[in-house]
Design brief:
The structure is a single chain. By secondary structure, the protein is α+β, with helices and mostly antiparallel strands. Helices cover 41% and strands 21% of the residues. It contains 17 helices and 17 strands. Helix 6 packs antiparallel against helix 11. It binds histidyl-adenosine monophosphate (HAM). Histidyl-adenosine monophosphate (HAM) binds next to strand 6, strand 11, strand 12 and helix 13. The site of histidyl-adenosine monophosphate has 26 residues, from strand 6, strand 11, strand 12 and helix 13.
Length: 429
């Protein structure tokens, strides 16, 4: 018989890993609530045409695409933004603006598997639809900061750029959109020399080539200083200047609102997806050279799908990579978890009493297991210890006659007799 394994790039998450993943997902859901994002659920399989419309070559070439039994070209979603834009263009088109949408689920890309890069991964996706104002871009950065803080990351930073800076130059130099996209894709892969070569071959001015060469190395953490340098470089390109000013406004809003985000501005920063029209950003942590999340403004996508012109900005956080960063930063989930309890009857006849006590505790929202292997007390406690259970409740005849049980603190290894009616208070204490 063949020994079946998961497919390359696909993983089973066993309880510890699944626990981390669920913790991060629940935190994302909490952040969505705090910022007013309403959760929606979209299909995992969508039309190939929809998903590839503005995905960019990189994502497009790595799709899980196939023909369904009806002969339609379909694919597993590589992200959520296309699905949300489809909704905004169709069933949500009359929704009063702005609206805030949250979705969470698995996404699929045929990436080369490595640490933090899988073929099935999870995203939490936030989209703020219907406004072009910088407050919206700032909000997306802020909620990203909140999520990283709430999962407990101690060190993280955001790299921020604006696609309008480069596109402003290329547009004014009459580089066609297809070439612009190819240039941005190379920038995204940090192949700056190749990108500059492509710019040169597009028949642009010498000044343009010089400007782009200097731009791609223009980055830093002193926001005012970097923006000043970028502005000086692009001063002859009207749309690029507007992009720099837009980025300045967004980042000032973030800073002045009391969010202490570690920001790096990078003029040559581009993203693989093609739908971006404004501010773009990614989350980074020390010790991992992959982004924990990324997003930006996309003001033309809804229109492309047949909707009204609708500005929007959003972000997707990579849940798998968030858990990886938590592990590298040694964030202990156990400390955040609730106490666990096992109820052990001393003998067969006390089984129902044990079940009753378990129910009583669960009614008070406590996490309770009941011994189901018919083990003797010592064996049952050994097993509870192995599984790092916090408390054991030992149900014995003698204590039960007095309406009590033995409550044993398994980490401190001490125990006392507690009346059943006081168990909940005693454990909570
Ligand atoms: P993205 O940068 O392609 O953006 O993906 C967002 C995040 O998903 C990445 O930063 C990463 O954490 C995670 N991710 C992507 N590919 C993989 C993979 N193969 N394995 C593990 N994690 C991965 C988007 O998807 C956009 N839809 C974000 C957005 C929303 N822009 C506007 N709204």
């Amino acid at each position: 018989m063949t020994e079946f394994k998961t497919l390359r790039g696909m993983r089973d998450l066993l309880p510890d890993d699944a626990g981390m993943m669920i913790y991060v997902q629940e935190t994302a859901r909490k952040v969505a609530k705090l910022y007013g994002y309403k959760e929606i659920i979209t299909p995992l399989v969508e039309s190939y045409e929809l998903l590839t419309a503005k995905a960019g070559d990189e994502v497009r070439s790595r799709m899980f695409a196939f023909k369904d039994l009806g002969g339609r070209d379909v694919a597993l979603r590589p992200e959520f933004t296309a699905s949300v834009a489809r909704l905004v263009a169709t069933s949500m088109r009359n929704e009063p603006k702005p609206f805030r949408i949250f979705c969470m689920g698995s996404a699929y890309r045929y990436d080369e598997p490595q640490r933090g890069r899988y073929r099935e991964f999870w995203q939490s996706d936030f989209e703020l639809v219907g406004t072009f104002r910088p407050e919206a871009d700032a909000e997306i950065l802020m909620l990203t900061d909140s999520l990283c803080q709430k999962v407990g990351l101690k060190r993280f930073g955001l790299k921020v750029g604006h696609v309008g800076i480069l596109r402003g130059i290329l547009g004014q130099e009459k580089v066609i959109e297809k070439d612009q996209n190819a240039i941005m894709q190379l920038m995204d892969k940090k192949q700056y020399d190749d990108a500059v070569k492509l710019v040169e071959s597009a028949g642009v001015s010498k000044k343009c080539v010089r400007t782009i060469r200097e731009l791609v190395v223009c980055r830093g953490k002193d926001i005012a200083d970097v923006l000043k340098r970028i502005r000086e470089l692009v001063k002859d390109y009207e749309n690029s200047v507007a992009a720099v000013e837009n980025l300045r406004t967004i980042l000032e809003l973030v800073n002045k609102s009391g969010y202490k985000i570690d920001l790096t501005v990078d003029a040559g920063f581009a993203r693989g997806l093609e739908y971006y029209t404004g501010m773009v950003f990614e989350i980074f942590v020390p010790d991992l050279d992959i982004a924990l999340g990324g997003g930006g403004r996309y003001d033309k996508l809804v229109e492309l799908f047949g909707g009204e012109p609708t500005p929007a900005v959003g972000v997707a956080h990579g849940m798998d990579r968030m858990t990886l960063a938590m592990e590298t930063q040694k964030i202990d989930l156990k400390a955040k978890e609730e106490r666990t309890i096992i109820v052990v009857p001393i003998k067969e006849e006390l089984k129902t009493e044990a079940l009753k006590i378990a129910r009583l505790l669960r009614d008070a929202d406590m996490l309770v297991e009941v011994e189901v292997m018919g083990r003797k007390m010592t064996k049952a406690l050994e097993d509870a210890d192995r599984r790092k259970t916090d408390y054991a409740i030992i149900v014995g005849e003698r204590e039960l006659k007095e309406g009590s049980v033995v409550l044993r603190d398994l980490s401190k290894r001490d125990q006392r007799i507690v009346p059943i009616g006081k168990l909940v208070d005693e454990i909570k204490r």
